[in-house]
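Structure in, sequence out. Go:
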C-alpha cells in the first residue's frame, strides 16, 4: 500500500510549541538557518542576473553560455553542494536546503497570485532565524506522532532531525488530545528563533480524524463586510471595531523606532561599532519587544474574532481578496489593513474545516452599491462614495446603513454560490 501524503488527509492542524535548545542545539539551528538563507539568496542572485540579460535584448553566444552556467548552478541540490562544499557540513539538515528551494518557488507563485507581494528578494540577515525540516517515514513504518525521525518522546521531549532530543513546552490538554488520536502524520516542521531569542517548533499535522470535535449545528448564517472604518460589519447589523489598543501600541512603537534610529546615527557618527553600543542594543530589544506585543495582540484579535464567527454560525460569508489591479489606488493604511484581512480570511478557511462549518468567499463587486431588498444597483452619478455611510434606495425607498447592506449582499451571494455547487 502506498503511503499517504499530507494532502491526502482530510484534516490539517497547526501546532506551535516553545522549545528550549541547549547551547550546542542553538548552534545547529543557527547553522541551518544560515544555510537556508544562503541557498534562498543564491536562487535570487542567479535569477536576478538572468533577468538582467533579458532586459538587454541581445542574445550573443556569451550570454547564452552564461545563462546556461547560471541555471546549472541552482538546478539540483548536488550542484549547489559541489559549488559550496560547506553545505555538506554534518550539522546541516538536507531537508532545510530542499525547503529553501521550495520556498523560493513558492515566493514566485505568491507574486503571481497575491497582490502586494513583490518578486522574491534577498533575505537579509536579521536577529530572527528560521528553517524547515520534514520527518522521514519509512514505507513499512506506522504513521504516527511517535515513529519517524521527528517525533514526540513524551509531553516534554521531542526528537528532531540533527537536533536530537530537545525539551519543549505546550498545553497538556492539547497534547493529550493529539496523542490519543489514531493516525496523525507530521508534515513540515518550522524551527524559529524570534527577535526576543525565544525558540519555537511549528508542526503541520494531518489526519483523517478531526482534530477538534465538530461544533453542534446552529442554524445561523452570517455575512461580513470588511472595511476601513471598522474591522467588519455583519448582516445581523452588528459592527466590530478595530481594536483601539492596537493603534495606541503602534504609536508607542513608532516613537521607540525613531529613538533607535537616532541612537544608531549617533553611534555611527562617533565611530562606535553598533554591536558594542549598549544603548543601541538596549533600544533594539525594546523595539523588538513592542513589535512582538503589537503582532501578538493583532493575532489574538484575529483568532478570537474568527473563532467566534465560525463557532456561532453554520455558514460564514465574506468577500474574496481584491485583485492586484483593484488595489493599485489604495493608500498605505489600506494595505496594512489588507494584510490583517488576508490573515483573517485564511483563519476563517482553516477554522471552518476544523469545526466542520462552511466558509464561502464571494466576489465583492457591487456588494456596496446594490440594495439588498430590491436588487437596484446604484450607478453613474448616484454611485455611493466612501463618505456615504447611510443611503436610501431610490427604487424601493428602503433606508440602508452602507456596510450592513453590503454584508447582507455578501451572505446572499454566498448562498447562491452554495446552491449552484450542490
Ligand atoms: Zn431597493
Amino acid at each position: 500500500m502506498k503511503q499517504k501524503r499530507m494532502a491526502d488527509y482530510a484534516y490539517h492542524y497547526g501546532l506551535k510549541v516553545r522549545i528550549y535548545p541547549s547551547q550546542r542545539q542553538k548552534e545547529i539551528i543557527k547553522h541551518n538557518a544560515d544555510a537556508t538563507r544562503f541557498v534562498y539568496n543564491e536562487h535570487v542572485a542567479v535569477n536576478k542576473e538572468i533577468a538582467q540579460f533579458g532586459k538587454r535584448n541581445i542574445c550573443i553566444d556569451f550570454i547564452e553560455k552564461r545563462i546556461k552556467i547560471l541555471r546549472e548552478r541552482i538546478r539540483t541540490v548536488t550542484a549547489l553542494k559541489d559549488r559550496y562544499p560547506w553545505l555538506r557540513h554534518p550539522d546541516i539538515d538536507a531537508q532545510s536546503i530542499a525547503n529553501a528551494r521550495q520556498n523560493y518557488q513558492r515566493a514566485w507563485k505568491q507574486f503571481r497570485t497575491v497582490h502586494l507581494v513583490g518578486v522574491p528578494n534577498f533575505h537579509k540577515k536579521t536577529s530572527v532565524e528560521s528553517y524547515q525540516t520534514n520527518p522521514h517515514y519509512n514505507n513499512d513504518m506506522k504513521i504516527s506522532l511517535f515513529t519517524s525521525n521527528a517525533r514526540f518522546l513524551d509531553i516534554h521531549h521531542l526528537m528532531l532531525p540533527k537536533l536530537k532530543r530537545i525539551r519543549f513546552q505546550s498545553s497538556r490538554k492539547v497534547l493529550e488530545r493529539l496523542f490519543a488520536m489514531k493516525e496523525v502524520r507530521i508534515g513540515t516542521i518550522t524551527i524559529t528563533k524570534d527577535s526576543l531569542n525565544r525558540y519555537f517548533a511549528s508542526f503541520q499535522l494531518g489526519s483523517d480524524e478531526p482534530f477538534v470535535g465538530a461544533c453542534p449545528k446552529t442554524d445561523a448564517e452570517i455575512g461580513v463586510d470588511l472595511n476601513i472604518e471598522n474591522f467588519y460589519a455583519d448582516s445581523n447589523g452588528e459592527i466590530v471595531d478595530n481594536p483601539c489598543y492596537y493603534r495606541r501600541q503602534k504609536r508607542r512603537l513608532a516613537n521607540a523606532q525613531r529613538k533607535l534610529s537616532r541612537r544608531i546615527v549617533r553611534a555611527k557618527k562617533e565611530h562606535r561599532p553598533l554591536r558594542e553600543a549598549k544603548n543601541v542594543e538596549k533600544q533594539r530589544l525594546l523595539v523588538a519587544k513592542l513589535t512582538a506585543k503589537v503582532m501578538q495582540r493583532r493575532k489574538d484579535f484575529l483568532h478570537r474574532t474568527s473563532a467566534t464567527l465560525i463557532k456561532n454560525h453554520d455558514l460564514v460569508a465574506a468577500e474574496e481578496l481584491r485583485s492586484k489591479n483593484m488595489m493599485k489606488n489604495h493608500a498605505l493604511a489600506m494595505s496594512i489593513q489588507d494584510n490583517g484581512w488576508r490573515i483573517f480570511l485564511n483563519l476563517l478557511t482553516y477554522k471552518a474545516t476544523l469545526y466542520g462549518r462552511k466558509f464561502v468567499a464571494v466576489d465583492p463587486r457591487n456588494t456596496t452599491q446594490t440594495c439588498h431588498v430590491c436588487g437596484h444597483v446604484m450607478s453613474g452619478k448616484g454611485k455611493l462614495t466612501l463618505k456615504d455611510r447611510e443611503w436610501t434606495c431610490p427604487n424601493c425607498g428602503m433606508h440602508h446603513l452602507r456596510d450592513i447592506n453590503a454584508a447582507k449582499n455578501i451572505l446572499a451571494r454566498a448562498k447562491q454560490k452554495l446552491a449552484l455547487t450542490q
